[in-house]
Write a structure and sequence with these properties.
Elements lengths: L3 H15 L8 H19 L13 E3 L1 H11 L1 H22 L4 E10 L6 E6 L2 E6 L4 E14 L3 H67 L5 H36 L7 E3 L10 H11 L2 H11 L1 H21 L5 E12 L9 E9 L7 H67 L5 H36 L4
Helix pairs in contact: 1-2, 2-5, 3-5, 4-5, 5-6, 5-9, 5-11, 8-10, 9-10, 10-11
């Protein structure tokens, strides 16, 4: 696709070769106009300042760097990782219920008044002095092991493992969703960046055209109204530049925020891996790889992380029902221990060792177990509804993505034809305006149509890339 700078150079070259005064003009006037045309040709073909060039102090990010930064700094991903750590701790705690609990306690006490005492006289005063040892030391060691609790431990362990798997899958889905958002925001930045470039090049071209019109006005080739119309057109184009720059800055702020960075920090973004054109062979290959909607939906149902997480949550809820039912069963536990107590810290061999077995049979608990079971069963039904809801959501997302892909493919074909027509129309209007057969309005209309068509073409290419990302995300293939 020829750039606007190439259009400028071509048109300036034709102007230099064709924009000459009529034979009735003097030789000096002809020479002045030729020199002006030559200077205009050189200035137009000079490199134009791009809005997307780095200032030298801003860091330039590729898409891969943005994705990696988001993996480390995005708040949603960090929150999901912390939840995963908490779920892992619950599994460890549930496993610990199968192990015996061991407690050690030690104590010291001192009696302020004892029963054994003697009376001692100090002149006219008498005092009672305790004769017994007021100090007491004790040590207790106790171990307890649950032998049977109605399979509550097994149910809790299964529930915690299912919850851990669900949390892990949810974290993976959060990561995929965040990376999709970063990709979308990155493409939005690149599109806005290119729009700024086109708008600025358009202003530069309009200003050069104004200089040419002023030169023609001096030699009487065009009327003053032509110059006024071009000046008004430059004002409109400069306003479009301001609006495009604002959209570009907003897109950068949104992207930086999704990366977990300060939205106000300086940054530029570039990625040569994103194609500027999409060949038909690549379009066909993507269609072949993903297949039809029913085929893609079947794959999505099998591999989407959010759906698998919902299924694991349902398993955890089913384990909660079994845990609640354990309240109807008796509990059996064994215990053993060693106790020691003395007035001095010695004679530890005098301690007592014991073992025991306890049985607890629930007879009536005020229907609390029945309430817990019903609550757990309601949780199972809610998780089943969540599974169905996510399946419906996946089908909707995939259908929308496939429709978006089909629309993007049509946009590529339409904008390709429109761009070729707009280029031909612009060159034709440019030639007619140079020879006086066309008006300034015809020229400006053709130029604006070319600019709009180029922006539409860029949008179509990026829309296709977004549609591909949407399809891969909906299927569960987006890396």
């Amino acid at each position: 696709m020829p750039t606007l700078r190439q259009f400028v150079c071509r048109r300036a070259g034709r102007f230099y070769s064709s924009a000459r005064p009529q034979s009735t003009q003097s030789g000096s006037g002809r020479r002045i106009l030729e020199i002006s045309a030559l200077l205009l040709f050189i200035s137009l073909c000079a490199p134009l300042t791009s809005a997307a060039q780095s200032t030298g102090s801003d860091r330039v990010y590729t898409m891969e760097e943005c994705l990696q930064i988001a993996l480390n700094n995005n708040l949603d991903i960090r929150n999901a990782q912390e939840q995963l750590r908490s779920a892992g701790a619950e599994v460890t705690s549930a496993f610990g219920e199968f192990l015996p609990s061991v407690n050690v306690s030690a104590g010291y006490s001192r009696q302020l008044f004892t029963g054994d005492s003697v009376t001692v006289n100090f002149g006219e005063l008498s005092r009672r002095i305790p004769t017994g040892d007021p100090d007491n030391y004790n040590i207790n060691l106790r171990a307890n092991l649950t032998l049977f609790d109605g399979f509550n431990r097994e149910s809790n362990y299964n529930r915690s493992k299912a919850s851990l798997a669900a949390t892990d899958l949810t974290a993976a889905y959060t990561r995929s969703n965040t990376l999709l958002t970063v990709r979308e925001n990155y493409i939005a930045v690149l599109r806005a960046q290119q729009v700024v470039e086109i708008r600025r090049e358009d202003v530069d071209l309009a200003q050069k055209e104004l200089e040419r019109i002023k030169t023609q006005l001096e030699v009487g080739v065009v009327a003053p109204a032509t110059m006024y119309a071009q000046e008004a057109e430059i004002g409109s184009k400069e306003l479009a530049v301001v609006q495009a720059e604002n959209e570009f800055n907003i897109a950068k702020a949104v992207l930086l925020a999704s990366m977990g960075r300060d939205p106000a920090s300086g940054a530029d973004f570039i990625d040569a891996s994103l194609p500027s054109e999409i060949p038909q062979s690549e379009i066909d290959e993507f269609r072949r790889r993903n297949g039809t909607y029913p085929t893609a939906l079947k794959r999505a149902i099998e591999q989407r992380e959010d759906l698998m997480a919902a299924r694991k949550s349902r398993e955890a809820a089913e384990s909660s029902v079994a845990s609640a039912q354990s309240g109807y069963y008796p509990q059996v536990s064994a215990n053993a221990g060693w106790t020691w107590s003395n007035t001095d810290l010695d004679n530890f061999s005098d301690g007592n060792t014991y073992i025991g077995l306890s049985l607890n049979i629930p007879v009536f608990n005020g229907f609390s177990v029945n309430r817990n079971i019903q609550t757990a069963e309601v949780g199972v039904q809610q998780r089943l509804i969540d599974v169905e809801r996510i399946e419906q959501q996946i089908a909707t997302e995939l259908q929308r993505a496939y429709l978006q892909l089909a629309s993007a493919e049509k946009e590529l074909a339409i904008t390709d034809r429109s761009l070729k027509s707009a280029e031909a129309n612009f060159f034709s209007a440019d030639e007619r305006f140079k020879v006086g057969a066309g008006t300034i309005l015809d020229y400006q209309t053709a130029n604006n149509r070319l600019i709009a068509t180029r922006i539409d073409r860029i949008t179509a290419v990026y829309n296709y890339l977004l549609a591909r990302y949407a399809v891969e995300f909906a299927v569960g293939d987006l890396d």
